[in-house]
Amino acid sequence: MTVEYRGSYDERGGRGVVVEIDVKSSHHSDLSEHVYLVTHTTSGFEWGNDSGGALQLALAILSDTFSSIGLSAGERLAVDLHQEYMLRAIKPLPKAASWTFTREEVLTEVVKMLAAA
């Protein structure tokens, strides 16, 4: 099963930034901000910068990824790694562009981060 995280700007729908989880051939849903772990912003997700919204997006993607694969202590690991993940994967994204990460791409980046530590 392929799982994708997709981000886009949707000003027409009045929703601003939209980040969804898409489970291929099943369903999609909005990504939770996971503010119960750490609150960097209450204004929603951003990318293409190093703002609180970009940190919140990194935290949400990592937390969702780790919990979905059953990683024990996944939330703690997400909190520990989200700042570096934001710098490596979220900040470089073009600000006004749509993007997609597969869950495998997220995990590959995490492995690279851990190997470099």
Throw out a few tags for this protein.
4-stranded antiparallel β-sheet, 21% strand, 4 strands, 41% helix, alpha+beta, 117 residues
Contiguous uncertain segments of 5+ residues: none
**Average predicted confidence as pLDDT:** 84
Radius of gyration from CA coordinates: 13 Å
Q: Could you say how many structural domains there are in total?
A: 1
> How is the main sheet built?
4 strands, antiparallel
Our estimate of the beta-strand percent is 15-25%
Element string (H = helix, E = strand): EEEHHEH
Between the first and last Cα atoms, what is the distance in angstroms? 30 Å
Number of helices: 3
Strands ordered across the widest β-sheet = 3-2-1-4
The total count of strands amounts to 4
Which structural class fits the helix and strand makeup?
A: alpha+beta
What is the overall shape?
globular
Write the layout of secondary structure elements.
Layout: E1 3-10, E2 16-23, E3 27-30, H1 52-68, H2 74-90, E4 99-102, H3 103-116
Antiparallel strand pairs: 1-2, 1-4, 2-3
Notes on the structure:
The chain is 41% helix and 21% strand. It is an alpha+beta fold and 117 residues long. The N and C termini lie far apart (30 Å). A four-stranded antiparallel sheet has the order 3-2-1-4. It has three helices and four strands, in the order βββααβα. Helix 1 crosses helix 2. The longest helix has 17 residues, at 52-68. It is globular and about 35 Å long. The chain has one domain.
Outline of the structure:
The protein is α+β, with helices and mostly antiparallel strands.
